[in-house]
Amino acid sequence: MSVNTNPLAAATSRLRSAGADTDLEQLRQVVDAMVPFNNFVGVRITELTREYAVAEVPVRDEMLNHFGTVHAGALFLAAEVAGAGAFSGAMAPRILQVQRFVLRESKVGFLKPASGRIRARATVDQQVVAGVLERGVEERFELTGTSLLHDDAGVLVARVELDYVAWVAAA
After folding, report:
1. The dihedral sign for the CA sequence 22, 24, 25, 29
2. Which of 21, 46, 81, 153 is deepest in the core (most CB within 10 A)?
3. Terminal CA-to-CA distance of the chain, rounded, Å?
4. How far apart, in whole angstroms, are the C-alpha atoms of residue 130 and residue 68?
5. How far apart (Å, rounded) are the C-alpha atoms in residues 25 and 36?
6. What 3-state class would DSSP assign to 129?
C-alpha cells in the first residue's frame, strides 16, 4: 500500500453499500481489519459504540517482556487501537467523509505490571465530535481521547492520553 493511500477511504468502501446509516458492527469489522500491523500482532476491537471502543491484546508469549509481564509496546498498541475505534464510533454518521485521522501525541502512565489478557477502553471528546457532526463542513480539527487499560484481574495497569488531528470533507 502506498504511503499516500487513504486506508480509511479504501476500507470504508464496503460501508458505502450499506447506505447512509452506518451499522456500528459493520464499522467495527472494517476498522478492526484495516491496519496490517494490528492484524499481525492480533490486537482486536471487541466493542464499538458511539461513546467508546474496547480493544484487546491476545495472551501470547510474544507479547511479554523479559519479566514475564505484558510488554509496554503491546499495552500502548491496545490503547491506540481502542482510541481509533472510539473515534470511528463517535464519527460514524460522517465516517465516509473522514479523510485522515492521525495520532499526533500521547502520554502514557504505566501504573502496574500487566498480566494476561489486556482490555483497553477508550473514549474521545464527545463535545468536539458533536460540533464537527453538527457543522458538516470540510475542516481540520483536533481531538483528545483517553484509554484505560485493565488486565484479566480487573486491575488498572495503564492510562493513555491521546491527542489526534483529523480532516473531514463536507457532508
Report:
1. positive
2. 81
3. 27
4. 42
5. 20
6. helix
Task: Give the 3-state secondary structure of residue 160.
Answer: strand
Q: Quote the CA–CA distance of 72 and 5 in Å, as a whole number.
A: 29
Residue-wise pLDDT tens for the chain (171 aa)? 445 555 555 555 555 554 445 688 988 999 888 888 999 999 999 999 999 999 999 989 999 999 999 999 999 999 999 999 999 999 999 999 999 999 999 999 999 999 999 999 999 999 999 999 999 999 999 999 999 999 999 999 999 999 999 999 998
**pTM for the full predicted model:** 0.89
Please tell me the chain's helix, strand, coil percentages from 3-state DSSP, rounded to the nearest 5.
35, 35, 30
